[in-house]
Amino acid sequence: MALIDFRLSLLQTQSRQLAQAEAIQHEANSLALLRQINPAAEPSGRKALGQSVWLQWNARMVGNYRPQLAWLGRETGYRVALFKVNYAIIEGDAVSVRGSVELIGRIDPDRRPTL
After folding, report:
1. pTM, whole model, 2 decimals?
2. Number of domains present in the structure of the chain
């Protein structure tokens, strides 16, 4: 009986560890995806991370737009601003992870967000 209890305990521990590893992988994938977006162009959105797993985000500008600097401090035509991006990883119908990151948003000389 003790061996059966021990085996069940091991299976439960393994199941928890696999779920934690999967959650870490989803969050790493989410952060990689978020680094590729321009929050000035896509202030909110939703992208698939896998089967029934989604990344959802909403960004808000934290500061004002400033000139983007190039080599030797010269200004380019682009303007940049800091955005706080709140995100959630949704598995099925439940939110499994919530977090936030700060990203740079960029607009072109014609004041249009660039991707």
Report:
1. 0.78
2. 1
Any idea what the Cα angle at residue 40 is, between residues 98 and 56, rounded to 5°? 25
d(CA 11, CA 7): 6
> With contact defined as beta carbons under 8 Å apart, do 102 and 82 qualify?
yes
For β-strands 66-69 and 94-107, DSSP reports them as unpaired
The pLDDT tens digits along the chain (115 residues) read 888 888 888 889 898 898 888 888 888 889 999 999 999 999 999 999 888 899 999 999 998 999 998 888 888 889 999 999 999 999 888 888 899 999 999 998 777 766 6
Residue 115 lies in a domain: no
